[in-house]
Amino acid sequence: MITIPSLSEIVQRVVVAARQRLPERSWRPRSDGRRRLEVLALSLRTLYEQLGIVKRDLLPNSSQDLSAWGEILSLPRKGATVAQRSSALRVTGAAATIVADDEPLTNTVTGVAYTIPTGGTIPAAGFRDFDVRSVGTGPTALMAAGESLTFDSPPAGADATTTLLLDLQGGEAEEQLEAYRARILARFVESDALITAADYAGFALAQDGVDSAYVYPLRNGIGTVDVAALKAGSGTVRVLTESERAALEVLFETARQVGIVGVRVLSVVTTEVDVDVTLKERSGVAWDWGEATSYEVDSYDSGTRTVTLTADRPADMEPGDRIVLEETGGNGGGEVLVVDAISGTDALVLAAEPSFTPGAGDLVHPAGPLTEPARDALLAFVDALGPALGEYGLDWRDTIDISQLEAAVFSAVPDVRDLTVVAPASDQEPEDPPTGLDSASVRLLIPGRVLVRRQA
Questions:
Q1: Is 175 a domain residue?
Q2: What was the pLDDT predicted at 39?
Q3: First vs last Cα of the chain: how many Å apart?
């Protein structure tokens, strides 16, 4: 074990050695000999530090440069990832306009190309929020909320320019160091004599873009292995595309050994679960405005982003305050919005366009410093779920458990004093095998509307 002494400790050791060998010389502080020894001690200290770096980089559990270990183990570091986000791109246009799968768009400022992986039809509201992902990889593909993308060839009835509602995620230059370290350390505990079913998770994680992998031995019969792989992010963007699944199947077939008769990459089918919680704050935490009372929307002007209420606005609401909108006839809303200005006695102007068009009967809830971190904790909890375990999954969390939802918020937001989960009303477990789907599919729970409100 290398212990690095302090500079003063090295000086003391050098002075003691010098006095033993040259007792006739003066080694008092500020003497010429003492100063020379201090210079020597400083050099020795540098050598100690270099030895410490060598010690750190010698083993894979502490090294900051794992490239050599990757070469030895034939386990290269994964490359750059795409930038993407679920329900992040707002497309406007005429009702019934069809947006095709893999519709291409471009950032006209940077020239970076993007696609809408799963298309759909614009409803009567005149807009729809789609998933979006970059064609290229790396940090240059990242974009911020409010920026625009332009269709290469706009679908008939759709506006040519679209708007990002959320910052894109991913766009990493290369695999995160700690994720790479975990793969290298996992390789050391694998058996060289036999590839086990669990090893297929490691094969999947070596694929660019794959963030997590889940293995089902024998799910399709004796000698079979099923694997479900997911990407990073939130909601539907975690699901692999057909081409990504096909690439994994080729990789598995190459690695498959005698005795394994078949390896499948499962199709992941998502099921949205709405989460609605109410919070009570600890003493000293102030919400931006109001009590635990909701206000009803009378109308909304999308041109000015003005929400008009059916009653007078709360007297303590000011510009800069935060609110949460809830769509009562659907599952829109939940995100924290900022009041840009107030108008008259019963209206407020939003700083940004909400994720849905508010209408009569929708609700405005108070928000404050606890709202967004609590919502982030709930989203992170659901986005960390794996697909349905069923009878054959090895070991992971696939269920939205009410008590674990509560624990996720309490651990992330210490100023929450009390919490009630309104929805879901009970624990949510994905079915496996999934009804109406073949055995090559598996269900995954993803967040629908996540609503955080103030508790009375």
A1: no
A2: 86
A3: 58
Is residue 63 one of the residues assigned to a domain?
Answer: no
Structurally, the chain folds into a number of domains equal to 4
What pLDDT band is residue 408 in, cutting at 50, 70 and 90?
Answer: very high
| 132 within some domain | yes
For 395, residues 6+ apart whose C-beta sits below 8 A from its C-beta are none
The answer on pLDDT for 258 being more than 60 is no
H helix runs in 176-319, sequence order: 177-188, 199-205, 242-255
- Domain residues for 134? 83-170
CA dihedral 253, 258, 260, 263 (to 10 degrees): 0
Distance CA 207, CA 92 (A): 35
Q: Are residues 315 and 379 in the same domain?
A: no
* Same domain flag for 92 and 24: no
CA distance 250 to 183: 20
User: Between the CA of residue 434 and those of 87, 163, 266, 424, what are the distances in Å?
Assistant: 24, 35, 12, 20
- Pair 264, 405 in one domain: yes
d(CA 81, CA 371): 31
Q: How far apart are CA 384 and CA 328, in angstroms?
A: 28
Which one-letter DSSP state was computed for residue 4? -
Residue in 414, 384, 382 with CA at minimum distance from that of residue 396: 384
Q: Looking at the structure, do residues 297 and 445 belong to the same domain, yes or no?
A: no
Amino acid letter at 419? Answer: L
Average pLDDT, the chain: 90
Angle at 170 between CA 167 and CA 171, to 5 degrees: 100
Average pLDDT over residues 62-74: 81
Phi, psi of 150 (to 5 degrees): -120, 130
Is 126:303 a contact under the CB 8 Å cutoff? no
Question: Considering the domain boundaries, does residue 177 fall inside one?
Answer: no
**Are 265 and 379 in a shared domain?**
yes
Q: How many CB atoms lie within 10 A of CB 433?
A: 16
Where are the extended beta strands (E) located within 288-415? 295-301, 306-309, 322-326, 333-343, 347-350, 363-366
